[in-house]
Specification:
about 120 residues; alpha/beta; about 30% helix; 3 helices; globular
Length: about 120
């Protein structure tokens, strides 16, 4: 697939949301750091190229449904509910099934799948 054919990119940021929007981006704590900043920068670059970016993260604000926030011209931050907000790796690892189901449900309800899915974490 040539870069000009790429229209939609999904970025998995399961552990924490990037430094975009209000869905749990509590930058400055000792847990949310470099990876979230890198994901935000990647999303902003893709946005500038006109590529639609969906960033999927586990919930870091209390919610019982999927929340979506537009945080750039072409960037959607999507919070998938997986239980009470937490950054605890053990708890998050136990919720991977809920997260995967939430991602599949999101794309089932909202249409077209991404051309590329990117993740660099567990």
């Amino acid at each position: 697939m040539a870069p000009s054919e790429i229209e939609r990119v999904a970025i998995i940021s399961y552990h924490s949301p990037p430094v975009l929007g209000t869905l749990g981006s509590d930058i400055g704590n000792e847990i949310v750091g470099g990876m979230s900043v890198d994901i935000a920068n990647i999303a902003r670059t893709l946005d500038a190229w006109g590529i639609n970016v969906t960033i999927l993260t586990s919930n870091q604000v209390p919610a019982d449904k999927t929340l979506e926030e537009i945080v750039g011209k072409n960037i959607h931050l999507v919070q998938i509910p997986t239980g009470a907000p937490t950054y605890d790796k053990g708890e998050l690892k136990g919720r991977r099934g809920l997260f995967a189901k939430g991602v599949l449900d999101y794309y089932t309800q909202n249409g077209r799948l991404p051309d590329i899915t990117y993740s660099n974490y567990w």
